[in-house]
Amino acid sequence: MKSDPAVAVRDLPVDTTASHDLDLPAIAPGEVLLEVEDLTTTFSSARGPVRAVRGVSFELRRGRTLGIVGESGSGKSVLSRSIMGLVPSNATRTGHVRFAGTEILDASAKTMRGYWGDQMAMVFQDPMTALNPVLRVEQQITESLHEHIDITKAEARATALQLLESVGIPEPKRRLRMYPHELSGGMRQRIMIAIALACGPQLLFADEPTTALDVTVQAQILDLLQGMQRDRQMAMILVTHDLGVVAGRAHDIAVMYAGRVVEQAPARELFAHVRHPYTEALLRSIPKLDMAKHTRLDAIGGRPPDLVNLPDGCKFAPRCPHAQDRCHVDDPALTADPAMAEHLFACHFPVSGVGVGVTVPVAVEPPSARPDPEVQA
Amino acid sequence: MTATTGNIPSAGAPAHLVDEENLEETGTAPAKKLGFAAWLAAGWLTVVVAAAVLAPFLPLKDPDVQSTGTPLLAPFTGSLLLGADANGRDMLSRLVWGTRTSLIVSIGAVGAAFLIGGLLGLLAGFYRNWIGKVLASLFDILLAIPALVLVLALVAVLKGDPTADQALPGELILIIAIGLVSIPLLARITRAQTLAWSQREFVMAARAQGATDRRILFREILPNVLPAMAYIALLGIGIAIVAEGAAALFGASVNPPQATLGTMIDAGRNNMDDAPFVMFLPILVIFLTVMSLNFLGDVIRNRFDVRESAL
Questions:
Q1: Is A1 exposed, middle or buried, given 0-12, 13-18 or 19+ CB atoms closer than 10 A?
Q2: Contact (Cβ atoms closer than 8 angstroms) between residue A124 and residue A130
Q3: Residue in A21, A89, A132 nearest the CB of B202
Q4: Nearest by CB to B208, which of A114, A117, A128?
Q5: CB-CB under 8 Å, B219 with A139
Q6: Contact criterion met (CB below 8 Å) for A315 and A331
């Protein structure tokens, strides 16, 4: 795309990056913006409490990207929505979420509205359903501008135009008048990003932003997100089920399993020294170009545990090739690697990480057809 | 046939004639032919509405003036185009003025129900807490009472003592009575649609951008619900016209000599043997009008409903 993302923020007709509804201290790049401490989210269901997030803690600094990786049902999407406070009424959250030093976990929806869109925004998985089918692109972008910023119609329109240009949409004037169904999938996701960025949030959640897109545009969208994050010095949480998506794009990676972070480390460190058997298994399940023809994919046998009836001990133990008796009774805590303080993992018998030998493909979707786990097991 | 009514309960209205129209609607081409029948329906409604609106300016005889010289004059025979009723009143004039009153009543009633029922339905569908539950049960209770009985009872109460000075004009009484009965119908449809649309991810996306409930309800959800509401309202106008007719048969319509389509049918019953046209002319007008409304409603619904599949 010809437009340079760096142009947009400076040239916006209004300063959208300020804190509009709230009196929050400015967080300089590199300082801690978001602190999550022992966050749990439990849904009440007819079968009993569903423990979707169980004690997640991390810090996120401004200008950094945290990749949250996990398979379906690992709680990664619930985690990001729990942090934002966008959970349904049958969810209970405990723990702490501090944004720019302010506790927001127990804030009212009214207070949170000041954060939503303005301070923290989310790019949703499927731009087809996350855009309103009957509103023009312009209305959808300017909606939150009007919500948070005292702005005239003309200014909002000009801002929307700039935003579209900055997310690499050709002929932005014409697109503003279009409805979502008139746009391609990649284009719609760019619109979603423009909407999320409209008020200049400091924290951006990208919830599987490329899962619903063609493989050919996935890398473009990820590059765009990365460019925007760098340009605006935002903190970003990139949620994905694909290690390939976060490789090279996230500064830190947290691997989630059954609602918990099982391994967390700077990206480079994680790929170099895998410690948790689950992460190792995830990496192994990515097909590699140098594999011999007809190599059977190394899928993870079994299925994730039922979040209502969680097994005792390590939740991954039933599927873990290294599991021993202790793993089935004693749930390991997330502890730091003695050799590397920033590398956390929750495992009694960590793997050495040597010999995994993965060359992680960047932003390439692994084949969706996984072998039947039952056959593998 | 059931496919044409699709996800919207048809509120007992006949769904008909739309199959070929439906087939044409599968494409996404912007310009679609309406079809001959649709034009016919639109044409008839235009004539009816125009006549009703322009009634005071049309060169018509006074609809309420009786003439002893021409009772039950057959249509196309004398000086009066559509003949005269048992009191010698000009049938054409009474049809036009009767249609006018019937339309005022039905559009007024459905319009009021559209606003009130639509708003309540939106709230009931959007708020899943006690507000939604209370409203939903309220609709159910109102729907459980037989509509005609409720209309008759309301008219009786609102009319009060027939010998006393009437406080409310007859049209207004009917608007209130039929409107009240229509509120739960429109509210239920709106609620069902709102429930479905509230679950959509764009609502969550709007909330994640800091939109207030009001903005989400009226800017994000309402535009999506509106086509279904409009469709039901269009059918509702037809139902309201028939309801006025039914009320008239029980003497619960406007007071004589004012004409409505219903009171004309009621009056015509006495002469069914010797002059059936007095009864059947207003019946024909009701029939064609209601059918046109239903038909146009289906066409409009089909047009607006393709949006989902086009995505």
A1: middle
A2: yes
A3: A132
A4: A117
A5: yes
A6: yes
Distance (Å, rounded) from C-alpha A302 to C-alpha A299? 9
pTM assigned to the model: 0.78
Is A89–B201 a contact, with Cβ atoms under 8 angstroms apart?
no
| Helix A215-232 / helix A185-197 crossing angle, nearest 10 deg | 20
Going by their DSSP bridges, the two strands A65-69 and A235-240 should be labelled as parallel
Q: Which helix (H) or strand (E) covers residue A245, if one does? A: helix A243-246
Is A126 in contact with B201 (Cβ distance < 8 A)? yes
Least confident of A23-27, B137-141, B181-185: A23-27
Q: Determine the pLDDT at residue A99.
A: 92
Q: Looking at this protein, which amino acid is placed at residue B7?
A: N
Structure tokens at B252: 């619960």
Q: ipTM value of the model?
A: 0.81
List chain A residues with pLDDT less than 50: 1-8, 10, 355-377
Nearest Cα neighbor of A259 from A313, A307, A294, A322 is: A307
Report DSSP letters for A183-242, one per residue. Answer: S-HHHHHHHHHHHHHTT--SEEEEESTTTTS-HHHHHHHHHHHHHHHHHHT-EEEEEES-
**Tokens at residue B19, please?**
């199959």
Number of helices (H) and strands (E), helices first, in chain A?
A: 13, 12
**Cα separations in angstroms, A101 against A31, A34, A281, B295:** 11, 8, 37, 61
Strand order in the sheet with A340-345: A120-123, A203-207, A235-240, A65-69, A252-257, A260-266, A340-345, A335-337
Gyration radius (Cα) of chain A, Å: 21
Task: Tell me the average pLDDT of chain B.
Answer: 81
- Angle CA B141–B143–B146, to nearest 5: 110
